[in-house]
Amino acid sequence: MPSTPHCAEMKLQTLHLARRSPHRRSLWCAGLLITRIPPTPHLCTCMEPGVGEVPQTTGPSTDDSPQADSHFLREPHGVLSHIPRPAPPPVAETRMDGHFSRAYWSGFKLATLRYPAAVLSGTAIARQIHKEIQASVEQLVAQGNRRPHLAVILVGDDPASRVYVRNKTRAASLLGISSSALLRPAGVSQAELLDLIDQMNRDWRVSGLLVQLPLPGHINERAVCNAIAPEKDVDGFHIVNIGKLVLDQRTMVPATPAAVWEIIKRTGIETVGKNVLVVGRSKNVGMPIAMLLHSDRNHERPGGDATVTIAHRCTPRDQLAHHCRLADIVIAAAGVPQLITADMVKEGAVVIDVGINRIHETGSGRIRLVGDVDFEGVQQKAGFITPVPGGVGPVTIAMVMKNTVTAARNALAH
Ligand code: ADP
Fold first, then answer.
1. Sign of the CA dihedral 17, 21, 27, 31?
2. What is the pTM of this model?
3. Is the CB of 335 under 6 A from ligand 1?
4. For residue 401, what is the enclosing H or E element?
5. What is the DSSP string of 121-184?
6. Is the pLDDT of residue 79 over 90?
7. Are 236 and 242 a contacting pair, CB within 8 Å?
8. Whose CA is nearest to atom 20 of ligand 1?
9. How many helices (H) and strands (E) does the chain have?
10. Is 60 left (phi over 0), alpha (psi -120 to 50) or beta?
11. pLDDT band, residue 264 (cuts 50/70/90)
12. Cα of 394 to ligand 1 centre, how many Å?
């Protein structure tokens, strides 16, 4: 980490500082970055000259290192994201209503910096998790064990599902996990599918097993999820694993909720006592995210101790906006493009976009991936934001791999 951290880092450091300080509301509030006088070495690059002083610098950074035109958002585990540094306005042009403003407050100097949100790179976080998984796999192999094996069952030829399966088997091979994709036609009967699952359950070489969802309408998804042996259920959809999750017991946490958790934790975002809005209540995504974030941090499977609100398709739009404005952390998992807009988001909020929507671009007719959040608009208001693609998606795949290694380790332990 450079000796004078960049502003995105300082937001993070200020969050940590705010947690410790009796002046916490004043230190970090609604996206305001407030620096103390005299500045700590960490915060000094954001200091403005006081009243009557001659400005020495015109911007938020005095860092002239080769990385001076970038922000590297770091946390204890490494680089998280890389975001462009906005050009600092000259001090002479500061305005309270502008992009950069200043104010003074008894003994403290307050500088308001309205930078775009720090973009939390899921790709970078996934890379970090990959390294941990690789090390874990190599340790297993060095101890004389087989490589973990992931079996993925794909029914039909839905293009999105094919991409997800390919991404999972690719990630597995990159991480030293062996894998197999078992393809069945869309017309496969439920009995045949259950029989295949049973074979995989009994195959000792298979550490982890998942059936790519959604399944064709004639197949009962719940019956399929419950047919997978709970100890091989790397998607965490088996009724026993969901029950354990709800009871705060250690279990296979479904990959997307686990990814949201990892992004929050590895970024160092505080959840205890915070207001979290989860938009979406699906049993595989919204509900488990809410479970993770509201539950007790001291339980067997630690939770986030947040105050969680769940919105869903019956939540009126004005109520959705109301709850969103109260939220320190917004997690959008509704599958509705542009659902969360800048006017709904509190200054400095953390916005995690779980949505993956395929939209046809007008004109070119090309298919583009977008989330549930109006990224460009919300980025101007939020403190942290995940992009789509490159946000929750890559971390989700990493969590499937992590669950596979956990399943392999658990099998050895029993
Ligand atoms: P996923 O499994 O990715 O969560 P689903 O389509 O199963 O996706 O679930 C979408 C969720 O989003 C549902 O819980 C639904 O109630 C919620 N939802 C859909 N539209 C809205 C909306 N306009 N506002 C809030 N929640 C919504």
1. positive
2. 0.77
3. yes
4. helix 392-413
5. -HHHHHHHHHHHHHHHHHHHHHTTPPPPEEEEEEES--HHHHHHHHHHHHHHHHTT-EEEEEEE
6. no
7. yes
8. 313
9. 12, 17
10. alpha
11. very high
12. 21
